[in-house]
Amino acid sequence: MELLGFLHGVKKGFQDVEKRARDPRGIRHDP
Question: Who's near 27: CB < 8 A, 6+ residues apart?
Fold first, then answer.
């Protein structure tokens, strides 16, 4: 089922964004 795979991809992407938002280094690339 490609719909299930799509939802899984969206969920994984959302977790990556959440993890990045929690880590300041993921957003800002200050030297």
Answer: 20, 21
CA distances from 9 to 1, 2, 28, 30 (A): 13, 10, 25, 29
pLDDT tens, residue by residue, 6-28? 999 999 999 988 887 787 665 56
Q: What is the CA radius of gyration of the chain?
A: 13
Q: Quick check: pTM over 0.85?
A: no
Task: Report d(CA 14, CA 26) in Å as an integer.
Answer: 14
- Residue 29: phi and psi, rounded to 5, are -110, 60
